[in-house]
Write a sequence for this structure.
């Protein structure tokens, strides 16, 4: 029996385990990336491991999230990241050089290699044929230190593409269509491989848009073959030697196969407040638009921007619309300026923002009260834009540009013909925005710079054999990491200061949660389906741990978040009977006995008054040791790496 792309790469990097779905696999990691919103904690953890130099083939620290410097906090974090990267052998991508996933796709990603990043959209590199995973910062730190990255061996899904996209229909519409089919939890426990004759018509940036949005499916990762299209892209980036052909065997077996005819697809739109609330753009053409944002790691490539420029050329945006443009990298911005496309964009009335994440994580350009904002981003969670009642829709760059001109949600297939855009034979290459680390001798005496906002990594507590605590908070389905630990310009600067950050935990759901949690010994959180979906931010585990949360009980968990909970020393349990969710209430006191036996046997019993509730506890032997040690850092300190 043949192998899938993912199975081939896993087999080539497997350090231990077996490839039976559901079993734990330890992988050797070739490359890592961090970004500044999660990176500071990752490097604080790396420092705590007492390892003098990273052991990966390539590690890069990007600055792309916290680029607004309204006070000293973000600037201090950037200074820390630059100095710690130089000392430990990590390259440093300076502020303004671009969004981590776009830059990594352009300059560093390699087919057939493994990559983990402290950002959930790291699977973007799957557009190059990499096996790339979003992970918590602790897992990234462990990999930089030479440790394995552990995953539960996923199922294999295949999406077969046929035909080709019509003018006005884009890779973003493919992403939204698969979200419509599978939902935000339909990819949980699976790697999604894309194939079929239709992929030959998709460029690497288009493929990367699709693998980027795979994170919204809850998938472990997404990947395309590395073929002649990939080879041409790498050659145009001056990286022809980085190409390796990567493909699935013809007789590879998949757990599920989905067929999509590109020729039949029409423009799609995700309505508030979930990426899978997908409709046809044509259905919503009476909705007035207040704001349009084009950019993010999903849609900020040169090809995306050239299409936008072609639509806007010689026209003006509607008077009531505000339009922002965020190129994904300095390379994209430079090439837009050289070819005149940037002038076409600016002449339309658009505002040019920095080559950074910006509005995608609520870092500026928030919509007006109740405003309708069309965004080419990957998430439209409630409040993520920075405006609590903002109505955020996810669209393609073509739909965004067309709607900015008319002032209403507009199907780009109805406007004047969209000129075809082709990628250049040679990209403009300037890597001066990426600083190389010090050599090993110079690094020994290098000083790591820490500002006053950078606090110590919070210390976890060992999981004891019994636990008695109250349910401090009960929440519903699809609770995101934005619910647990919000982003935005007001909060992101404190990502390296867990004590201060804790004041905002679950602010969207219950502003009184932090004080209530601190006042409660051994707090428990009760959640619904897909608890912890969204970002890889481990702050959504570290902050509850700091506030005294020892256990989270849910109907089901998102992949990265459950790993982050374990790494923080928080016990994750799932309800054996979903009906018990309705029985349990905030304030109930639960007693869990014989936790150690329960972790080994797979079930833990909770006593609530005179009622017994069965909780599933699906943990590997390694995860059990991490919890008993008090989290991943303690486990590594005991020799667990």
């Amino acid at each position: 029996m043949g192998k899938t792309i993912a199975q081939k790469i896993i087999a080539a990097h497997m350090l231990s385990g077996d490839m039976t779905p559901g079993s734990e696999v330890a992988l050797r990691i070739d490359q890592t990336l961090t970004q500044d919103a999660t990176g500071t904690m990752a490097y604080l953890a790396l420092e705590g491991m007492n390892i003098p130099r990273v052991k990966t083939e390539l590690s890069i620290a990007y600055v792309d999230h916290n680029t607004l410097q309204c006070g000293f906090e973000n600037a201090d974090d950037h200074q820390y990241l630059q100095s710690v990267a130089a000392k430990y052998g990590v390259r440093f991508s300076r502020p303004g050089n671009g969004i981590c996933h776009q830059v990594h796709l352009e300059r560093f990603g390699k087919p057939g290699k493994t990559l983990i990043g402290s950002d959930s959209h790291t699977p973007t590199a799957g557009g190059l044929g990499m096996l790339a995973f979003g992970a918590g910062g602790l897992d990234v730190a462990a990999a930089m230190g030479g440790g394995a990255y552990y995953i539960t061996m996923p199922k294999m899904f295949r999406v077969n593409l046929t035909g080709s996209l019509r003018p006005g229909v884009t890779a973003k519409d493919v992403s939204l269509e698969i979200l419509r089919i599978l939902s935000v939890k339909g990819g949980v426990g699976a790697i999604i491989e894309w194939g079929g004759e239709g992929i030959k018509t998709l460029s690497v940036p288009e493929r990367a848009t699709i693998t980027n949005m795979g994170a919204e499916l809850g998938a472990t990762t997404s990947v395309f073959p590395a073929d002649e299209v990939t080879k041409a892209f790498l050659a145009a980036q001056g990286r022809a030697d980085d190409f390796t052909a990567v493909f699935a065997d013809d007789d590879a077996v998949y757990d599920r196969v989905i067929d999509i005819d590109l020729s039949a697809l029409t423009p799609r739109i995700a309505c508030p407040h979930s990426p899978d609330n997908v409709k046809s753009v044509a259905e919503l053409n009476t909705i007035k638009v207040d704001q349009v944002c084009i950019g993010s790691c999903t849609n900020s490539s040169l090809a995306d921007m050239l299409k936008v420029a072609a639509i806007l050329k010689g026209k003006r945006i509607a008077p009531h619309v505000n339009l922002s443009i965020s190129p994904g990298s300095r390379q994209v911005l430079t090439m837009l300026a050289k070819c005149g496309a940037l002038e076409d964009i600016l002449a339309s009335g658009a505002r040019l923002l920095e080559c950074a994440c910006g509005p995608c994580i609520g870092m500026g350009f928030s919509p007006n009260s109740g405003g309708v904002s069309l965004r080419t981003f990957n998430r439209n969670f409630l409040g993520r834009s920075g405006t609590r009642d903002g109505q955020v829709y996810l669209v393609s760059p073509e739909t965004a540009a067309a709607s900015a001109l008319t002032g209403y949600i507009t199907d780009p297939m109805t406007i004047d013909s969209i000129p075809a855009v082709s990628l250049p034979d040679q990209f403009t290459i300037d890597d001066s925005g990426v600083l190389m680390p010090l050599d090993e001798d110079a690094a020994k005496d290098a000083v790591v710079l820490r500002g006053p906002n950078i606090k110590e990594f919070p210390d976890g507590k060992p999981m004891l054999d019994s636990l008695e605590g109250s349910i401090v908070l009960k929440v519903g389905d699809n609770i995101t990491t934005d619910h647990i630990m919000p982003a935005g310009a007001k909060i992101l600067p404190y990502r390296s200061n867990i004590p201060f950050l804790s004041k905002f935990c679950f602010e969207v759901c219950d502003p009184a949660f932090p004080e209530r949690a601190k006042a409660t010994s051994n707090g428990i959180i009760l959640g619904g389906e897909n608890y912890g979906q969204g970002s890889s931010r481990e702050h959504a585990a570290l902050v509850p741990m700091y506030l005294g949360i020892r256990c989270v009980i849910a109907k089901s968990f998102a992949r990265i978040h459950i790993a982050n909970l374990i790494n923080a020393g928080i016990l994750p349990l799932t309800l054996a009977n979903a009906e018990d969710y309705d029985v349990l209430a905030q304030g109930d006191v639960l007693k869990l006995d014989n936790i150690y036996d329960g972790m080994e046997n797979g079930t833990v019993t909770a006593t609530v008054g005179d009622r017994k509730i069965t909780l599933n506890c699906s943990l590997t032997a390694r995860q059990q040791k991490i919890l008993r040690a008090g989290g991943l850092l303690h486990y590594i300190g005991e020799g667990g790496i």
